Amino acid sequence: MVFDCDGILMDTEANWARVQRAVAQRHGLAYTDAMERAMMGWSAADVATAIADAAGADRALVHADVLRTEEETLTGQIVPLPGALETVREFAQRLPVAVASNSTRTILGVKLEQAGFAPHLSTWVSSEDVAHGKPAPDIYAEAVRRLGFAPAEALAVEDSAVGASSAVAAGLVVVAVPSVPDGDPVPAHHRVASLTDPAFRVLVARWLG
């Protein structure tokens, strides 16, 4: 089983939007609701490229600004979503569990350690561990490779269209827990309301046989 991180395991999406807004404004851009929706689930590198291109700024400098701002704003913001830690702990006792995230390697490690997920995970894959972040399939493909499964043997749990597209492209079976009901359609094989939704437990139980 492979979980996305932000929006699935922990409530950091709002913080990520604050990071994007702060960096955009420092480079003279108005951060709109449309920009926030468009960049939901993007990696730091992709966000930095978009802001740098729009502002006519140096991409490397903007990327460094994004990473620095995210690290500074993480303190006190890492809160597991309801049922997430319990769900990961429970499933990790029965099968290998991984996390596949567009976060950078350092930031992802900080999140998983501070929120208490790290001890229950077999591995985690960041956007820096592969050639291309989501929506490319690389992150999910690497996660299942590390777990020792074929893609079709693994469940991916995602909340965004960007992440779900990545998992579908990698060949995983996707369970969508949409965080934005009226946002972009999330491609998935199954849909549940949350990790505490009884339908999610039934689905996984059937999957495990």
From TrEMBL:
Coiled coil: none annotated. It comes from the Bacteria. This is Haloacid dehalogenase. It comes from Kocuria turfanensis. PANTHER family: 2-DEOXYGLUCOSE-6-PHOSPHATE PHOSPHATASE 2 (PTHR18901), PSEUDOURIDINE-5'-PHOSPHATASE (PTHR18901:SF38). Pfam families: Hydrolase.
